[in-house]
Amino acid sequence: MQLLVINPNTTASMTEKIGTAAKRVSLPDTQVLAVNPTKGPASIQGYYDEAVSLAGLLDVVEQHPQADAIVIACFDDTGLDAVRCMSDKPVVGIGEAGYHFASMLSNKFSVVTTLARSVPALEHNLHRYGLAARCSSVRASEVPVLELENPHSDARQKISEEIGRAIAEDKAEAIVLGCAGMTDLAQSLSDEHQLPVLDGVVSAISLCESMVRLGFRTSSLGGYARPIPHNPN
């Protein structure tokens, strides 16, 4: 099978990191194609960046109709519903995947994301997915997304400190990392804090592979009906 993994921002180094993580956990007969748009924001940090990124994201989907499933590799699950309207292939957001895995591995989980401006969107998604009651907190580490691409930054330390506070203050039993750019930190942070630290990228890959193998398709009834053609005139 071929999995199309889309980083909706234009930062190629992040796309490469996401692709490496996806290939590490994918099955031997799975082809992972990690791509990003050529136009749009360099990072997605809040509602405005999300809106600006949508045109590029949808263009990428249109350019790869052969994919058997699609992973939206932005923790805001940018454009998730729109992409599900474009194809009956399984489409999974990394935020959605991380939340669902965490809800099956713990009674209560916390999310540690980048900037505080991203928190409301993540809280909104948790309510949409019916998982707000399972989430102890959504915490901001105040690490800008692109700092995760700087090997000399103190991003990991700040994220680890926020995880420690989530465990101590919010009684979190698992942590979901709230940015695709954190994908390479999950295992070491899990080892350090001795609890599940989940990365949405690998979670989404595993979910997509399962749905493809089971022959599942996205429903085209109701909200995910195919787009209505518009008369250009």
Task: Write up this protein.
The protein folds into 2 domains: 2-94 and 203-224, Rossmann fold, CATH 3.40.50; 95-199, Rossmann fold (3-Layer(aba) Sandwich). The strands form 2 sheets. Strands 2-1-3-4 form a 4-stranded parallel β-sheet, with helices on both faces. Strands 6-5-7-8 form a 4-stranded parallel β-sheet, with helices on both faces. It has helices at 12-25, 47-63, 80-86, 94-105, 119-128, 155-170, 186-193, 200-213, and strands at residues 2-6, 31-35, 69-72, 91-93, 109-113, 135-140, 174-178, 197-199. The longest helix is centred in the first third of the chain and has 17 residues, at 47-63. It is α/β, with parallel strands linked by helices. The chain is built from 8 helices and 8 strands, in the order E-H-E-H-E-H-E-H-E-H-E-H-E-H-E-H. Strand 5 (109-113), helix 5 (119-128) and strand 6 (135-140) form a beta-alpha-beta unit. The chain is globular, with a radius of gyration of 17 Å. The mean pLDDT is 96.
> What's the helix-strand series?
EHEHEHEHEHEHEHEH
Shape: globular
Task: Report the CATH topology name of the largest domain.
Answer: Rossmann fold
Structural class call reads alpha/beta
Helical fraction = 40-55%
What's the alpha carbon Rg, rounded to whole Å? 17 Å
If strands are numbered along the chain, what order do they take across the biggest sheet?
2-1-3-4
Number of domains: 2
Strand content: 15-25%
Query: How far is the N terminus from the C terminus?
Result: 40 Å
Largest sheet: 4 strands, parallel
State mean pLDDT (0 to 100 scale).
Answer: 96
Please provide the count of β strands.
8
